[in-house]
Amino acid sequence: MTCSHLLQQQRTFIQMRTNLKVVDNSGAKRVMCIQALKGKKGARLGDTIVCSVKEAQPGGKVKKGDVHYGVVVRAAMPRGRCDGSKVKFDDNAVVLINKHGEPIGTRVFGPVPHELRKKKHVKILSLAEHIALRVVLLVCSSYRGKQRVGFEICRQLASQGVIVVLTARNETRGLEAVEKLRGLTGLAKENVVFQQLDVMDPSTIASLAEFIKIQFGRLDILVNNAGIGGVTADADALISEQESSGNLKHEWAKGVLSDSENLTEEKIQEVIEQYLRDNKENTLQAKGWPSLMSAYILSKAAMNAYSRVMAKKYPYIQINCICPGFVKTDMTYNSGILSIEQGAESPVMLALQPHGGPSGFFFVRKKISSSL
Asked: Which keywords, in A-to-Z order, does the entry hold (predicted)?
């Protein structure tokens, strides 16, 4: 094949006699397109073709000369997206499938675009090493208006091309938040979808998991911004708590939760149960617990400790906790010192960290902190 012929192939539709790289572990290495299905003159990203295997590895499932179906997972010809951007690859590539539409191989190598989801090729996406240009993201929070860090996290991530699955306990508020986000300038509609979720309701958790599995095949990032309040605090108390840094001062509890090497879920639970006993006996101050917002401070310290335990238990997942700072929101009675946009910057930064980034840490804004 001449260089000019190859260049011409890369600039046109996938058509008869186009050579494509095979990017799965079926055993095939290179195929030639025989026909684009559904009567098309040529195939594009996500389309299915009939192809003949031209090169194959010895001992593989697929042999040289075999004829198979293939899904175009990469195309050198640019494809436009609804948000005005384009997706384009350096090569033309396929994943081989059987007559039932299932991948023949068990792994897919290199980047593939999220457009395959629209073509119902969810299984291919689930086998892929990397989904190009898009990340499926789940944000758990409540949305009562724009004065929420969770809302701004969604906006910043979606504006960067991330697919955001926005969740909320209240379906009406969640749908209203989605409509507001979709109405923002430059935000693609398909970048934000809503699913109801109450972290205290197992049925909604199961329903959400099934939705993610069916629609996307995988979840790349989870931003857990959910919380259960139960208290009413005034602005003066919040400012005082912020000025005192809000760190856990109880020496025994701090020692247990800071011991990363020996920390376990059981030890975290032991600290919490001791606090509850002291609270019931009205001896919190006498026992050295914080005098102001002690439950809030301990809950944050326990969550940070639990994140470290989970990071050690699941080393292939990057798990971190982050404090966005004292943000001016409805929850802080607008007494914070940071804007909503500033507050969302650090969680977004942490959510988009590359593979192999830090795990098991507590961040205060954009820096790792040693405090609880």
From this structure: NADP, Oxidoreductase, Ribonucleoprotein, Ribosomal protein
Segment (H or E) for 222: strand 221-224
Dist. CA 82–CA 40, nearest whole Å? 22
Nearest to 295 by CA among 309, 308, 276: 276
Residue 288 CA to residue 249 CA, distance in Å, equals: 8
| 3-class SS shares of the chain: helix, strand, coil, % to 5 | 35, 25, 45
pTM of the full structure: 0.63
15-60 per-position pLDDT tens digit: 899 999 999 999 999 999 999 887 667 888 889 999 999 999 998 8
Question: Do the domains spanning 18-123 and 235-368 agree at the CATH topology level?
Answer: no
* 96, 69 Cβ separation under 8 angstroms: yes
Q: What residue segments make up the domains of the chain, in order of their start?
A: 18-123, 135-224, 235-368
With a cut of 80, say whether residue 372 has pLDDT above it.
Answer: no
- The arrangement of secondary structure in 135-224, i.e. its CATH architecture, is 3-Layer(aba) Sandwich (3.40)
Rounded to an integer, what distance in angstroms lies between the CA atom of residue 359 and that of residue 366? 14
- What are the contacts of 16-20 at 24+ separation with CB within 8 A? 18/92, 19/54, 19/92, 20/51, 20/70, 20/72, 20/92, 20/93, 20/94
CA 134/CA 220 separation, integer angstroms? 10
The CATH code of domain 18-123 reads 2.40.150.20
CATH class of 235-368: alpha beta
Which residue do the tokens 């090729």 mark? 121
Residue ranges of the alpha helices (H) in the chain? 3-10, 122-127, 149-159, 171-182, 202-215, 235-243, 251-258, 265-280, 294-313, 340-351
Residues acting as catalytic residues: 296
